[in-house]
Amino acid sequence: MIKAEFGNTIRKIRRKNKFTQEHVALSCNMSLRFYQDLEAGNKQPTITTLFRLALALEASPIELINPAWILWKDSKN
Length: 77
Fold this sequence. Notes:
By secondary structure, this protein is mostly helical. The protein is about 75% helix and about 0% strand. Helix 1 (about 1-15) packs across helix 3 (about 30-40), helix 2 (about 20-30) packs across helix 3 and helix 2 crosses helix 4 (about 45-55).
């Protein structure tokens, strides 16, 4: 659930910026497959990868994780 929300967020930001998955993956020095797994909600990033994603997507780390944080927090109440 949380990984899927993170994946949806990075997909939305990537599309808003008109970047391809390949562009983001190359910018982050990661495989295209790993990036696709992130967007699909099958993987979660390390903190370093989160920072690389933020730079590649021209977003802040907070923008990337805030929707997942809200979902997680709300599920605990």
